[in-house]
TrEMBL record:
Its EC number is 5.4.99.61. NCBIfam families: PRK08285.1. GO terms for molecular function: precorrin-8X methylmutase activity. This is Precorrin-8X methylmutase. Keywords: Cobalamin biosynthesis, Isomerase. It comes from the Bacteria. Belongs to the CobH/CbiC family. Residues 10-204 form the Cobalamin biosynthesis precorrin-8X methylmutase CobH/CbiC domain. It is an enzyme of class 5 (isomerase). SUPFAM superfamilies: Precorrin-8X methylmutase CbiC/CobH. Pathway: Cofactor biosynthesis; adenosylcobalamin biosynthesis.
Length: 207
């Protein structure tokens, strides 16, 4: 066996030093760079920076909302599970409605995915919330439809759905409409781990 690092803190130190050395973080505002480091850490791709687009106030707005007790609304249970509760500044509610028993029926009636239908159960909680979409492009499209219908806007949208069908398009739409402060990774890349990393950084690594 080769020797390998066994000390968790040392592994983190090495990882973050490598990211800071290899990623072009200087092109980002300081608070966005904090999120970018953790997102790169979650996926191993230092060129992620090239595809990041954001509102200048996304971190400030999301952080302030979390401090004020806003809920975190997630499209996938993987994201809700990954949010580190002890990092949250106000014991914030972390909610994924995908497994609610009402969702399969809603999806059938609406003729859409369960991921998109699950957002029907967000309506009351959306205004001022922090939204994390890391899996389903249809959830991001549906979020934009709800906001277009006049549902109150969230304080921040982490929009990083992944994949080959609708992911790139939904993120372009978010940036073009910009109904609330947002952060996206353009293109096919994204994922629940990336969304979680952004939320965990926003919750505890920026002031
Ligand atoms: C089309 C879907 C895609 N799923 C992707 C990638 C991953 N999905 C995983 C898992 C476990 C889940 N995906 C669902 C959200 C499920 N995935 C879909 C849908 C069919 C439609 C979403 C959309 O296109 O917008 C969606 C089902 C739905 O009706 O909404 C999931 C609910 C399926 C299920 O298990 O019931 C489930 C989420 C569970 C949860 O956490 O709550 C993967 C882990 C794949 C796997 O199981 O092997 C993976 C995770 C990726 C991530 O980082 O989040 C894509 C690639 C996003 C794909 C959409 C685009 C495409 O190109 O196909």
């Amino acid at each position: 066996m080769i020797d390998y690092i066994r000390d968790g803190a040392e592994i983190y130190r090495h990882s973050f030093a490598t990211i800071r050395e290899e990623a072009d973080l200087a092109i980002l505002p300081d608070d966005v760079a904090v999120l970018a480091v953790r997102m790169i850490h979650a996926c191993g791709m230092v060129d992620l920076v090239d595809d990041l687009r954001y509102s200048l106030d996304v971190v400030e707005s999301g952080r302030a909302a979390l401090e004020a007790g806003a809920p975190i609304l997630c499209d996938a249970n993987m994201i809700a599970s990954g949010v580190t509760r002890k990092r949250l500044p106000s014991a914030n509610e972390v909610l994924c409605t995908l497994s609610d028993p009402k969702v399969p029926g809603l999806a059938e009636r609406m003729g859409t995915t369960r991921s998109a239908a699950a957002l029907e159960l967000w309506r009351d909680k959306l205004p001022g919330s922090v939204v994390a979409i890391g899996n389903a492009p249809t959830a991001l499209f549906r979020l934009l439809e709800l906001l277009d219908e006049g549902v109150g806007a969230p304080a921040a949208i982490i929009g990083v759905p992944v994949g080959f069908v609708g992911a790139a398009e939904s993120k372009v739409e978010l940036v073009e409409q910009a109904p609330a402060p947002y952060l996206v990774v353009h293109g096919r890349r994204g994922g629940s781990a990336m969304a979680v990393a952004a939320i965990n950084a926003m919750a505890s690594e920026v002031e």
